[in-house]
Amino acid sequence: YIVQARPETVASQKKVGFIEDYKMLEKGKDIVATGRAVGKRIGSGKVNLLKSIDEMSKFEKGQVLVADMTDPDWEPIMKKASAIITNRGGRTCHAA
Predict the structure, then answer these.
(1) Could you tell me which residues are beta bridge partners of residue 85?
(2) Residues ≥6 apart with Cβ < 8 Å to 72
(3) pLDDT tens by residue, 5-56
(4) Is 85 a catalytic residue?
(5) Pairing of strands 47-49, 64-67
(6) Are 53 and 34 in contact (CB under 8 A)?
């Protein structure tokens, strides 16, 4: 058997007794994409569609990352992104 373990880094960072609530104050007229949110926050910024990790140098801080799917190699970009949109994945994928 192989067991992989890493420190828990999500729940332990939450503030106890504190509730965050996010609401959009304005909505755009045209729907450009639909899907399911895996988080509760709202992000905005200029969209940057990357077809592969090889395009990492084209990504700027504060942009919205749009990619087919991400993995741990994408982490340097994800740290700079204001939001992340992927075609594949869910609540437990790396982008979440």
Answers:
(1) 66
(2) 94
(3) 777 777 777 777 877 788 878 877 877 777 777 777 888 889 999 999 999 9
(4) no
(5) parallel
(6) no
Model-level pTM?
A: 0.70
Q: How far is residue 41 from each of residues 23, 34, 36, 37, measured CA to CA in Å? A: 8, 16, 13, 9
Q: Which amino acid is at 24?
A: M
Exactly one of 12, 94, 95, 96 is catalytic; which is it?
A: 94
Q: Cα–Cα distances in Å, from 6 out to 3, 10, 71, 73?
A: 10, 12, 16, 17
Q: Cα–Cα distance between 78 and 93 in angstroms, integer?
A: 13
**In contact, 55 and 76? CB cutoff 8 Å:** no
